[in-house]
Amino acid sequence: MSGRKEEEGSVSLEALRMKMAEFAKERNWDRFHSPRNLLLALVGEVGELSEIFQWKGEVPKGLPEWEEDEKKHLGEELSDVLLYLVRLSDICGIDLSKAALRKLELNAIKYPVINSNNNHSP
Ligand SMILES: Nc1ccn([C@H]2C[C@H](O)[C@@H](COP(=O)(O)OP(=O)(O)OP(=O)(O)O)O2)c(=O)n1
């Protein structure tokens, strides 16, 4: 499923879900993509993502001092996390788009806007 939006760098979770399903099917990897395996793969990728930040101390937003290669690597690890998350959701029969929108609503109820000048975290 490749369209204009994807060329512009915008993609839906549904498009990613379908691409991951196709990727696994083409390689006969459905047998490996069980919920537990996918969860462990996801956690492994979160570890790889963490390694990029490890020992750097706090870094400013936008990562202005990072080399392009380092940012490219960061994008790859973030993508691995997203792709395994999308695949895990699919294999578990969870509609991630719907679930995430519902969770945003629940968050807004749990944490109402009281004062926009409130600097305290929850
Ligand atoms: N059984 C698998 C193996 C890989 N992938 C896909 C999902 C991830 O986006 C990516 C992960 O590939 P690797 O396991 O090779 O991990 P990395 O790309 O992070 O490589 P490395 O761990 O060598 O840095 O490939 C998958 O769907 N199912």
From TrEMBL:
<keyword id="KW-0963">Cytoplasm</keyword>
<comment type="function">
    <text>Hydrolyzes deoxynucleoside triphosphates (dNTPs) to the corresponding nucleoside monophosphates. Has a strong preference for dCTP and its analogs including 5-iodo-dCTP and 5-methyl-dCTP for which it may even have a higher efficiency. May protect DNA or RNA against the incorporation of these genotoxic nucleotide analogs through their catabolism.</text>
</comment>
<comment type="subunit">
    <text>Homotetramer.</text>
</comment>
<protein>
    <recommendedName>
        <fullName>dCTP pyrophosphatase 1</fullName>
        <ecNumber>3.6.1.12</ecNumber>
    </recommendedName>
</protein>
<dbReference type="InterPro" id="IPR025984">
    <property type="entry name" value="DCTPP"/>
</dbReference>
<keyword id="KW-0479">Metal-binding</keyword>
<dbReference type="Pfam" id="PF12643">
    <property type="entry name" value="MazG-like"/>
</dbReference>
<keyword id="KW-0378">Hydrolase</keyword>
<keyword id="KW-0460">Magnesium</keyword>
